[in-house]
Design a protein that fits this description.
Number of strands: 7
Strand order of the largest sheet: 3-2-1-4-5
Largest sheet: 5 strands, mixed
Structural class: alpha/beta
Radius of gyration: 41 Å
Number of helices: 15
Low-confidence stretches: 22-36, 355-367
Shape: elongated
Distance between the termini: 135 Å
Mean pLDDT: 79
CATH architecture of the domain at 198-350: 2-Layer Sandwich
Helix content: 40-55%
CATH class of the domain at 198-350: Alpha Beta
Strand content: 5-15%
CATH superfamily of the domain at 198-350: Ribonuclease H-like superfamily/Ribonuclease H
Order of helices and strands: HHHHHHHHHHEEEHEHEHHHEE
């Protein structure tokens, strides 16, 4: 019995004198050497318990690992918290520029300036309140600013005075800035393309070639000239050999009595050479060349060529030049005089320039409800033109 108690006492003394102190030293050493996860505060607390030699060695070890990462990682991602911590730490360190690794010094300064602006913006922000002028007046100012891009604040203020609404110029400026889009160069009008086209489309023509193949796989070319305002086909012709002389002759035929547009849009095809340019210059037409590989610059003519293919030529076996001319002539007649066009609010191209309601009303003299509906076949029944009997 005494032997058992003697061995137990010896085991307890061994634990107290050797194992527990060794285990405690190992735990403390492990806590000193293992980084404290993602917590910056825990790592700072543990650094207070380390010696200067251990901090220098760990600094060298971390520096070498950063050198290795720099060769592999191009652009690390930073959260808002990471940016704030880096800005605060850099503000307390004299040699912060040389200690930066993941970002450039200019980037850190940019973060600091952004945080400075956000701080003072939040501090100087006033409590939201309702405008002193009626909400209807605010909406009217925004509507005038959006619909009239050339008007300034004083011009809008004068328009409001005409309606009996009195506001100061500064109030108008406040609400018109929010209504208009940013990015417009100062001193320049930011009218959109539809406004520009509406003001100039009646003076602009566009031309292009459509290449086809007959039943014997021989090439054929159809030349079209379209007016952008009404989408009316001004002229067309068919040939097998489109040369510069032939194209220039087509331009002479379409402008026999001085009825010429101001602009003519064309692509960079070699068919428009010196003679075509000379005829256009003598007629007083300014030729506009589209950029290379930019079919959208001549979108209206390209769209019409697609309509010709889908609605006519894709359903016809072309026997020759005369057959193609007859088919295209009948389709152009139908297109100009009977086919409603979505781009001109369902009007008919030949009637689009006349004032009034829809193209159907103008073509029927204004009567759209009286009379029996009669259909007229076009292209052998491929399309039909519907009209009311007189």
């Amino acid at each position: 019995m005494k032997e058992k108690y003697r061995n137990l006492i010896w085991f307890i003394e061994f634990l107290v004198l050797f194992l527990i102190p060794a285990f405690g030293r190992g735990v403390v050493s492990w806590l000193w050497r293992k980084p404290a996860g993602n917590s910056l505060a825990a790592g700072a607390v543990l650094d207070l318990c380390r010696s200067k030699q251990q901090l220098l060695l760990e600094n060298a070890l971390l520096r070498q690992q950063l050198i290795v990462l720099r060769r592999q990682v191009n652009r690390p991602q930073f959260t808002k918290a990471d940016r704030a911590i880096l800005v605060v730490l850099a503000s307390r360190l004299r040699t912060w520029k040389s200690a930066l690794f993941a970002v450039q010094p200019d980037t850190l300064l940019q973060w600091h300036r952004k945080g400075f602006r956000l701080f003072w913006k939040r501090k100087s922000k006033t409590a939201s309140r309702q405008p002193k002028i009626p909400i209807e007046t605010v909406e009217l100012i925004r509507q005038m600013a959006q619909e009239n891009r050339l008007w300034g604040a004083e011009r809008i203020r004068g328009e409001l005075l005409k309606l009996g609404i009195r506001v100061c110029k500064r109030t108008v400026q406040k609400y018109m800035r929010r209504a208009r889009k940013s990015g417009t160069p100062e001193g320049k009008s930011n009218q959109n393309w539809s406004t520009f086209l509406h003001n100039h489309a009646n003076q602009v023509w566009a031309c292009d070639f459509l290449q086809l193949y007959d039943l014997f796989f021989k090439p054929l070319f159809v030349f079209f000239i379209i007016q952008l305002d009404s989408r009316r086909i001004v002229h067309f012709n068919v040939t097998r050999c489109p040369t510069d002389e032939w194209t220039a002759q087509q331009l002479r035929e379409v402008t026999p009595f001085g009825e010429v547009p101001r602009f003519l849009i064309r692509d960079n095809d070699s068919k428009y050479a010196e003679k075509f340019t000379q005829v256009a210059k003598v007629s007083g037409i300014e030729v506009l060349r589209t950029p290379f590989k930019a079919p959208k610059a001549n979108a209206y003519c390209e769209g019409f060529l697609g309509s010709v293919r889908r609605e006519c030529l894709d359903h016809v076996l072309i026997l020759g030049e005369r057959h193609l001319h007859r088919a295209v002539k009948e389709y152009v007649r139908y297109y100009n005089s009977a086919r409603p066009h979505q781009g001109i609010r369902q009007c008919i191209p030949q009637e689009a320039g006349q004032p009034g309601a829809s193209g159907h009303e103008r073509s029927l003299g204004g009567s759209v409800t009286a009379g029996k509906v009669i259909s007229f076949p076009v292209l052998g029944g491929l399309h039909h033109d519907y009209r009311r009997a007189a």
